[in-house]
Write a structure and sequence with these properties.
Elements: H1 2-17, H2 24-34, H3 41-50, H4 52-62, H5 64-67, H6 76-111, H7 114-135, H8 150-162, H9 170-180, H10 185-211, H11 217-244, H12 251-274
Helix pairs in contact: 1-2, 1-11, 3-10, 4-10, 4-11, 6-8, 6-10, 7-9, 7-12, 8-9, 9-10
Length: about 280
């Protein structure tokens, strides 16, 4: 029962922080300091990735009609536009996919530590503030996903690739990249959601390849519970973000990232000093 409660807490954290550009990794490493599941480290590493499938299903549910090229409610033109959207998503996923396949283990070994997480939280927090200040009062050049060109999509994909470094935040990196390229906030956020679909499924497959399917009954239960909670919370997080950015910019997330990065650095630095 206690382990289930811990998973519920982790699922809530994942569901909120996956879509808000504040780094789910940065929050999870802090939460896991106080909420430790009694499972193997290899399962915990896989849990942190697979629980994201619950989050991604929230995107599929919310945007199902828009993402479905076979919807009978769509005209032929709308179906073609949906197919074009998926082509852009696939192209935008190429940079992260290639680098993930070739260097995933290297990145985890060299960069998966609290100090890198803290640094990335702060760096991208500062970038959010700088980018928003630069674009203040300016009219976005791209106001619809249909206006995204292939070169623009690829560049956004490169920013998503940079998010493989822990603490960066996949949504944070892609939103920053899209804003720099002149997209409206709503376009940046939605295209980030769509890019997450292949990215998260791909990351989950990589983890499953390493871990295998040798789950115990309890591990299956904890994994499914975490995915369910992550799914439900993600529904609210996505809707909140899309409503929030109608009248606000992303600077508040930048300030929050900087504050969290400082907390992470001080906390783990103090632990290392006292050890």
């Amino acid at each position: 029962m206690l382990e289930a409660l811990k998973v519920i807490i982790l699922g809530i954290v994942q569901g909120i922080t996956e879509w808000l550009p504040i780094s789910s990794t940065g929050h999870l490493i802090l939460v896991e300091e106080f909420v430790n599941l009694k499972v193997s480290q290899s399962f915990m590493d896989m849990f942190n990735v697979l629980v994201q499938l619950g989050s991604i299903m929230a995107v599929v549910v919310i945007y199902f009609h828009r993402l479905n090229p076979f919807s009978p409610k769509k005209t032929q033109k709308q179906k073609m536009m949906t197919i074009q959207l998926w082509i852009k998503v696939v192209i935008g996923s190429i940079p992260a996919g290639v680098v993930g396949i070739l260097f995933n283990d290297f990145i985890e070994e060299k960069f998966n530590n609290s100090y890198v997480v803290a640094a990335m939280l702060i760096v991208y927090g500062i970038l959010f503030i700088i980018v928003e200040n630069y674009h203040k009062g300016k009219t976005p050049k791209i106001n619809k996903i249909s206006q995204l060109t292939i070169p623009t999509v690829l560049i956004i994909g490169v920013f998503q690739m940079l998010a493989m470094i822990p603490g960066t935040s996949r949504s944070g990196a892609t939103i920053v990249g899209a804003l720099i390229l002149g997209t409206a906030r709503s376009v940046a956020a939605e295209f980030t959601f769509f890019l997450a679909i292949p990215a998260m499924f791909g990351a989950s497959l990589v983890k499953l390849r390493h871990f295998g399917l040798g789950f115990t009954g309890m591990e299956v239960f904890l994994l499914l519970l975490g995915m369910l909670i992550s799914f439900l919370v993600s529904i609210f997080a996505i809707k909140f973000l899309m409503k929030y950015i109608q009248n606000h910019d992303f600077k508040v997330f930048g300030y929050y990232r900087i504050a969290l990065g400082i907390v992470v650095f001080l906390y783990f630095g103090l632990i290392a000093f006292l050890a």
